[in-house]
Amino acid sequence: MATGSPVRQATSLFQERFGSAPLVVASAPGRINLIGEHTDYNGGPVLPFAIERRTAAAAGHADRWEVISAVDGWVHRLDVEDTGTEAAGWTVYARAVIRTLARSGPLPRGGRIAVASAVPVGAGLSSSAALTVSLTRALLALAGRREPTDRIIDYAFIAEHDEVGVRCGRMDQTVAVLAEPGKALYFETGSGLLRLVPLETRVLVFETGVSHLLTGGELNQRRRECEVALDLLREAGRPLADLASLPLQELPWAVRVLPAPWSLRVRHVVRETARTRLAAERLAVGDLPALGTLLLEGHRSLRTDYGSSCAEADLLVESSVRHGAWGARLTGAGWGGAVIALAAPEREPRLIAEVQEDFRRIFGRLPVVWTTSAAAGARLERHT
């Protein structure tokens, strides 16, 4: 992970390695999803916000595509016509964005791109969407294309979902583009309803130190299980548009008629849908203790019904609550990543120390911890 300002780092890296100043620089934030996990690709609501940590992409014209990041410092040449294996790691996402934009409109025949990021990779904070959205904004500006925000979201989503093969929903790209400072974004993915909700508190972030890889299989497997569960419910006589459409009062019936693991996945999605809608209501009136309770319920559902937690996350959640947090839960796709916690500001210093000590005693190391407030979405940056 890069340190310092990603915008300055990307600009300096471009100048150092390519010998000129970039023409455009764009940045996009990582995100935290307060609640609404694994509901976005099931037609349910989510409640994310943009974090203060961002990814920046600096770009300029060239005869071929060359990319470099502050992480490895190597210039990678990309053949965007070749879908073979020459692209690896983060360069897969760069190639995906270039290919997606080239299909949708005019794009330079080549370009140079330098990337720097302060968003932890594999921490469940959507480093991939921060990368694809910042690249999309930068390359559209490089091509002189003015696109509405919904198209920017589409391009970044298509790059990650279709090109890279991560079976994600649209939550991450949506909040990375549309976020506003001091606000969470309530997003009903089934209907497209969007509503900004005040989020005036800072949020604690504990990194588990367990990195997840979205193309590693677990997320795609859970999505397939949800699709099978939906098909089974339709065969049982429920003409549902998606899993989140199943009424909460019909959940006991669904759990009876479906075998495991499909019954467990449905139980999580339906209850998480109800929790998220209630959470948006509680946040809107500033009821943080009630919101914290919903976060804790959501984590326990991720652990028992969705099977997407890990021992490190479970300890961080339970320790946070035991030491005075209103609530805590694993955020992001799961199988590692980060835990968020809500607590009264005056309680935070001691809570952090106590949770870190609990974690050190079990796992022999201290978890990285930091705080963030709700920040702005993607933008073009002034650069020198």
Describe the structure.
- This protein has helices at 6-18, 91-104, 127-142, 149-164, 171-178, 218-235, 251-257, 262-284, 288-306, 311-322, 348-363; strands at residues 24-33, 45-46, 48-61, 65-69, 76-78, 111-117, 183-188, 193-198, 203-207, 327-331, 338-342, 369-372, 379-380.
- The protein has 384 residues and is of the alpha+beta class.
- The strands form 3 sheets. A 6-stranded mixed sheet has the order 5-4-6-3-1-13. The protein has a 4-stranded antiparallel sheet with strand order 10-11-9-12.
- The longest helix has 23 residues, at 262-284.
- The chain contains 11 helices and 13 strands.
- The protein has 2 domains: 6-200, 2-Layer Sandwich (Ribosomal Protein S5, domain 2), CATH 3.30.230; 204-372, GHMP kinase, C-terminal domain (Alpha-Beta Plaits, 2-Layer Sandwich).
- Helix 4 runs antiparallel to helix 5 (171-178) and helix 7 (251-257) packs antiparallel against helix 8.
Taken in chain order, the helices and strands follow as HEEEEEHEHHHEEEHHHHHEEHEE
Query: What is CATH's topology name of the largest domain?
Result: Ribosomal Protein S5, domain 2
Main sheet strand line-up = 5-4-6-3-1-13
Helix count equals 11
**Main sheet makeup:** 6 strands, mixed
Poorly predicted segments: none
Terminal residue distance: 23 Å
Task: Please indicate the percent range of residues in DSSP E strands (runs of 2 or more).
Answer: 15-25%
Q: What is the helix fraction of residues, given as a range?
A: 40-55%
| Tally of DSSP β-strands | 13
Radius of gyration from CA coordinates: 21 Å
Structural class: alpha+beta
The CATH class of the largest domain: Alpha Beta
Give the domain tally. Answer: 2
The mean pLDDT is 93
What sort of overall outline do the alpha carbons produce when their principal axes are compared?
Answer: globular
- The CATH architecture category of the largest domain equals 2-Layer Sandwich
